[in-house]
Specification:
This protein has 195 residues and is of the alpha/beta class. Helices cover 42% and strands 17% of the residues. Helix 5 crosses helix 6.
Length: 195
Amino acid sequence: MVSNELENIFLSASIPLNNRDAKYFGSADVISIRDAVIALTTALVPHYRIIWGGHPSITPLINYVMQKIEKKIQDHFILYQSDFFSDYFPEDNNQFDNIITTERLADKEKSLELMRKEMLSNNFVAGIFIGGMEGVEIEYEMFTKLHPTAITLPIASTGAAAKIIFEKIESKDMDLVSNFAYMSLFQEKIINKLK
């Protein structure tokens, strides 16, 4: 578990693959997923720490933003990875000082479950869910159980798992469907609310 003065934001995101479940790929908006991750990182990093489970489509986007910000901000990022996937870690992982690698267990699902449990044992003020597949749905369920008072934002405009999650929740904030100005969305829904 990580601790110091920065508050933590959990990010669960991925770009669905066309050779996996069609229910995710069919509604995914890849441009919106990319834009939302870049905007989230740009808007929130000066104020918060982003914690996420490394995904080869998301970590490079976060690294891109980190390289553009000139301040020393390494402590604003914590990247979790499971050793089960060590042969597939993207090169961008090497750009982050704070990587927590969890133990490789008997199979992929057990290894992922362990990583998620350790990652979500941190304290969070918000969780943001962008695009994604079944992993994003699993992480949403875990996050809301472990952090019931945290702000949760399934960004439905990015489609895929985030849209499925949004459609299941009772209290719907339609900005999460219609507002593609992600910088201002995160300013309004996270920064302004947590002041």
